[in-house]
Predict the structure.
Amino acid sequence: MNEDKAARFAAALAGLPRLPLASVRPTPLEPMPRLSAQMGGPPLYIKRDDLTGMAFGGNKTRMLEFSLADALAKGADTIVCGSAVQSNYCRQMAAACARLGLDLHLLLRPIRPIDRVECQGNHLLQRLFGAQVTVLPDSDMDAQQEALTARAAELTAQGRRVYRPRQDDTLDLDAIAYAEVGIELARQCRDLGLQPRRVYVSALDTTQAGLVLGLRWIDSPIAVRGICPFRDWPRRFDDMVRVANQGAVRLGLDIAFTAADFDNDDSYVGDAYGLPTAAGLAAVRAVARTEGILIDPVYTGKTIAALWDDVRRGQLPADEPVVFLHTGGAPALFGYAAELLSE
Ligand SMILES: Cc1ncc(COP(=O)(O)O)c(C=O)c1O
């Protein structure tokens, strides 16, 4: 890795408003020898971003350090956002808002029939952290956007200072957090004498945009293999390019990206976002039973399933270490008990 460029990145990052939400940084990089043996594959390592520390951790904790600092800098007292009922983002957002004394309104899309009736996993935790949760009638994303806009307008009319995170002009703040993770990972690999050429990660937009930004900036040979949790989301490549470039501009880094810089595979999604696959559930069980580590059926399980498939197809040299970046999500397990127990 290029230390001068890493130092330039750190200096630029230090100029951004940031809140200390992650209590573990750097997160550990550990071997997974029993999973490697079970797969019959290369030496596997896990980067434990599930251990960032806030409310069961995960990738969003680090992102919220920048986006909620931006919210506070803009004088916000209320956050309005939404995702799926079992959203890890919304769980970590709810914990952060509780800690910062911000009101949070979550408008959530049900994905499975059970999401309308059961309050488990992330949904339970969102409510426990005091978020005002509305479960929308269906999973229509356009309708969700309209409902979010309407709720923000209503609260603004009541005198609340509303901030909506992850808008076009702020999405790169989330990515920047993962540019730092890319550099952190490269440094840990160097310190351990590891020379991986691939990191597997569950990623749709900001996580991969950031990782690629950070790794490319420091001239790291580690390539990011993103495994997409969403089906039919072709605009993700444009999004990642735009967000990575926007992050580079914000940090004053002279680097630019095109779609060719992003390897993001949506062939492990199965029927749809949020619906488990047999391979993903098998991966969740295998990681639990070989390493005592919890992954999840929506994101990281499908990522390990992809890694395993690459091993089976002979895509990974036996002597080259491979890193799995664990982005968290284990609380969702409790919302998928029936599927997990249906072996
Ligand atoms: C556990 C987990 N992994 C990965 C992702 C993908 O993150 P991004 O949208 O930044 O690509 C998410 C998003 O919510 C997630 O919860």
In short: The mean pLDDT is 97. The first helix runs from residue 3 to 14.
